[in-house]
Design a protein that fits this description.
alpha+beta; 4-stranded antiparallel sheet; 22 strands
């Protein structure tokens, strides 16, 4: 249930895709003794891949980040943004938030055996800043010693933790001479991650485990990252491919029921929203928005995919965030998803002057309330979701319909505000404030994800405060932003939007699942990919 047709070669955010291209042949199989040491992964959309292991290129190959190169530290959105140490074991701010001190793991080494030190972090940050690619703004960055990095900011930087942690560290000795970090393909990388590139073809990358990897022994000795191809389902069914986030249809019947060792993990990493154009009447009226929200059956929407992917999509709290993971950041009175209540919906519409007449919801001007839901004609799953939304609105008397258009027209109309409503979604990120900023900041009107065009001074003030607030204060601000979402309804939250990952426990166990969501399990998500592989154990 998503827009992407193929997995991007350089996916840095969770996204699923349909795989429609041919995989290579015998290189994808694992059998006999090799199966005990190898894992074949459907990772690329294809039909072919380019040898690009530059983690700052827009088209780097999956596996580059996490397996070859590593970032400083992470945050687990499935556990409320819990700190995940990596190259950095801890960080601390000065009381005013203008200085951040990072403590490096002294064990870290590059794949050539040389130490990874604080000077490599300083080099990376300054190198990216020089080329206008810095992931965060700072006034200076220094290395007081080999194990410490000090970053100075002009403003309190409590809100930049996720950005700092996401810095992928480069070895100075290899990158100092590179003049264009956007276009350099870096075909023979020297990284600090658990794998090196052993073999490359136009359809597969073979990653080999590093002997003496600094963090731990690497359990899976060989990772074959392949294009998914139109034989992906067959290869998954026969365990020739054992791990993928390639989008396949009918997961239950095509995969789960084929073998008891087949599993799916649905990481709740994002949510879906109905974004009404607030610059168009009557959607600027909160009672109309509340009526629409109360008219929706979120469970029915979730069931669109839950039949063939059990538990994949769930009704979400009106804040738009998964209450199980993020309760500490959300207003306690708004943790429960909104339940369909047609009578309450009609009462809310009545406050806005709309009443049912002959099965139609009619306003003071005598005209029926109408709404067109803009969607891309080529995206069958999204069209299905939109049609169910429309049918639910029709039942309260709204003249609702889906407007299916070409993708380029959808994109331009969405940006220009030429629509009544669209379905939007946003990832959870390091904490809810990043998502609220994406959805609600006035600077994002008509771009990013503020398609609804929410422009509110109080919201902007809270988001500004959050940039310089320590974590305890950020949680308080997040609860206020969550209250705005739930009570003023700039968007109507409907369901979680999962990342579905398929895996087999025939040869390897220790995968993340709903009871232990230590990572998203996706094979193209940097630190999460590495954390998953490093946690696996041979099946007994």
């Amino acid at each position: 249930m998503q827009r992407h047709k193929t997995i991007p070669a350089a996916a840095v955010a969770l996204a699923l895709g349909l795989c429609t291209s041919a995989c290579s042949g015998s290189t994808n199989s694992t059998s006999g003794s090799n199966a005990a040491n190898a894992l074949t992964v459907g990772a690329y959309g294809g039909p072919t891949i380019q040898r690009n292991f530059n983690p700052y290129s827009p088209n780097f190959l999956s596996g580059t980040a996490g397996l070859v190169y590593e970032n400083l530290f992470g945050a687990n959105p499935l556990k409320g943004g819990a700190f995940v140490p990596w190259l950095v074991t801890k960080y601390a701010f000065s009381p005013d938030g203008k200085t951040m001190t990072l403590t490096m793991d002294p064990r870290a080494k590059w794949s050539d055996g040389t130490p990874l030190t604080s000077s490599d972090v300083v080099f990376t940050a300054d190198y990216l800043k020089k080329h206008d690619l810095a992931p965060f703004e700072y006034s200076s960055i220094t290395a007081p010693d080999k194990g410490t990095v000090t970053i100075a900011f002009t403003q309190p930087a409590f809100g930049l933790v996720k950005d700092v942690g996401g810095l992928i560290v480069l070895p100075q000795k290899q990158w100092a001479s590179k003049t264009d970090p956007l276009t350099d393909l870096n075909q023979n990388p020297v990284g600090s991650g658990p794998y090196t590139v052993k073999q490359f073809t136009s359809q597969q990358v073979t990653f080999g485990a590093r002997e003496g990897y600094w963090k731990q022994t690497v359990p899976v000795k060989t990772l074959n990252f392949t294009i998914c191809g139109d034989t992906a389902v067959q290869k998954l069914q026969t365990d020739q491919m054992q791990w993928t986030s390639c989008g396949i249809t009918s997961i239950k019947s095509n995969y789960l029921t084929k073998n008891p060792t087949h599993h799916v993990f649905n990481a709740q990493y994002a949510s879906r929203f109905l974004a009404l154009n607030l610059t168009r009447k009557p959607f600027d009226n909160i009672d109309v928005r509340r009526g629409i929200s109360l008219a929706l059956n979120r469970g029915q929407l979730a069931d669109l995919i839950n039949g063939e992917n059990p538990g994949a999509m769930q009704p979400v709290s009106p804040t738009g965030y998964d209450a199980k993971a993020w309760s500490a950041w959300l207003p306690p009175e708004h943790l429960t998803p909104v339940k369909q209540d047609v009578n309450a919906a009609l009462q809310s519409f009545a406050k806005a002057g709309y009443r049912q007449s002959g099965g139609k919801l009619v306003g003071p001007n005598g005209k029926q309330l109408s709404i067109e839901l803009l969607e891309v004609a080529d995206y069958a799953d999204s069209i299905q979701y939109a049609r169910v939304l429309v049918e639910q609105l029709k039942k309260v008397g709204i003249d609702a319909k889906v407007k299916a258009v070409a993708e380029n027209l959808y994109t331009s109309d969405q940006a220009a505000g030429k629509f009544d409503a669209v379905v939007s979604k946003v990832g959870y990120g390091g904490n809810p404030i990043s998502g609220f900023r994406t959805l609600l900041a006035s600077e994002n009107v008509g771009k990013n994800r503020n398609w609804e065009r929410w422009n509110d001074k109080a919201t902007d003030n809270l988001l500004t405060q959050a940039k310089s607030a320590p974590e305890a204060e950020q949680k308080s601000i997040s609860k206020k932003l969550g209250t705005i979402m739930a009570e003023r309804l700039p968007l109507i939250a409907t369901n979680t939007n999962p990342a579905s990952t398929l895996y087999s426990t025939k040869h390897w166990t220790g995968w993340p699942d709903a009871s232990n969501p230590y990572s998203s399990a996706t094979p193209f998500d940097g630190l999460d990919t590495a954390l998953t592989v490093l946690s696996l154990k041979p099946a007994q």
